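re: ur question from earlier - yeah i can do the single chain one, its not a big deal. heres the input i used so u can compare w yours
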Amino acid sequence: MHNHNSVRLWWLALGAALVPFLTIHLTFLVSVLEGHVSLCVPYWDSCTSISRTGRYGTAYFIFKGAMLPAAIVGILFWYGNRAWLGQLGLRSAGAAWVPWLGLVAGLALGIYTVALGHEGDGFNLMRRIGVVLYLSLTFLCELLISGALRQHPTWSRQGRWLLGLCQLTLAIGILSVLLNALAPDLYRRTDDAFEWVFALLINVHALWLALLWRKSGFRVRFWVD
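and the output i got, formated as tokens:
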């Protein structure tokens, strides 16, 4: 029987996965309707960057209004993942870094969101640093959690699947780097699609973790009698 003072937190993980995913698609749709971007399938048409969907018009306010809370939820999500692994009896050295890496990733997302839509070298630098740190550190957190889960007797198969997803994400990232180095003209025509696919994969990983939180019955106590 669960302590009545504890609460299930899978909904927090669900929010961390879905809010960024839904936001970029909503701002894309709004930007199309308002004429700021062309109607296309950005995952393979590479017709617009994620940043451009939230840079103009109504989408500007939607993007900032959703992504800043998403950054906070993301920080809590990574902290919760460390607690979840602890409840599963997994206390790897790598997993201990997850809350700190997640904190920096969340702050980077916040910096990127604040800078989006503003012109100037300083804002451009903030935006570039923010998005690179957010995506790379989020991927690293997912990799560490997947590796830890692989050591668990019950969740080892899920850990292997999640590691496979991380390997696919890494392969996409390496391919984009190689294209930039070896075929820069092709890279310039496809780099936006790489960004969309990479973001999709890290959100799918977070959604998978949310389902595992729910399946494992992960609960946290916030207060005592």
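The beta strands are 6-8, 219-221. not sure if urs matches, ping me
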